[in-house]
Amino acid sequence: MRNLLFFISKYYVFFLFFALEISSFVIIYRFNNYQKASFVNYTTGVTSSFYTTVSNTQQYFNLRHVNDSLQMENARLHSQLITSYYQNQFTPKMVNDTIYKQQYEFIPASVVNNSVTKRNNYITLNRGRLHGIEPEMGVISESGIVGIVMSVSEHYCTVLSLLNNNCKISAKIKKNGAFGSLVWDGSDPRYAKLLDVNKHVPIASNDEIITSNYSTIFPEGIPIGRIFSHSLDAGDNFHTIKIELNTDFGNISSVYIIRNLMKNEQKNIESTIKN
Prior knowledge:
There is one protein chain. The chain contains five helices and 14 strands. By secondary structure, it is of the alpha+beta class. The chain has two domains: about 1-60, no CATH class; about 105-275, Thrombin, subunit H, CATH 2.40.10. The strands form three sheets. Strands 3-4-7-6-5-14 form a six-stranded antiparallel barrel. α2 packs across α3 (about 35-60). The radius of gyration is 32 Å and the shape is elongated. About 20% of the residues are buried. The model is unreliable at about 85-95 (pLDDT under 50).
């Protein structure tokens, strides 16, 4: 208390000056309309700016929740696309049946680990057996295909990235339906190769490449990329095609896992032929 009294007595002139300044400003802005209006406008602008900053900060920290909600909604909409349904052309008149039957479901997931610099790259997702994930499910992003589920635990799964020498995906040229195998040569993560396209097939740069219907993993028509370059050497029976991939594998955060509801039925009927 003694120190406080000493501090006040030492700087009492400053405190007196400060109090008189505040009193002067109060008198000026209280009894003069012009100064009062100016002060109100200024404080209103400062307050509005402060509240705007607070609101923007709250929205920023709420982006994760908004992103999760949008991802769930996108997965629901993907499942309702016509490409996610199996078309049954035969509809007997005596049976009240629908033309389309759900064939594909989309499960949203987040990337928790990823590699792009190795020769054989893998991706880890935060979805596992408890979420209905099984091996050999397709994985896509908003821009294109990502890979194939390889192994599954209770809460996580690892994905065989398209940037892996062991990954081979059935693809086709959209404009003419010519199909081949999409593989990665282990060099640049932005490009892949389309193999086994017959030399008689007309192709051109910038032709779009999509998934074919010769797969139980991906629906037909999922975008993959575009033809970046192509060549045909003398004596070759197949084109050499370089594909520029749509997916930026170095910047993947949200993906969708595809469940084919008719995969087992197709595999069972095909296994009877082999047996």
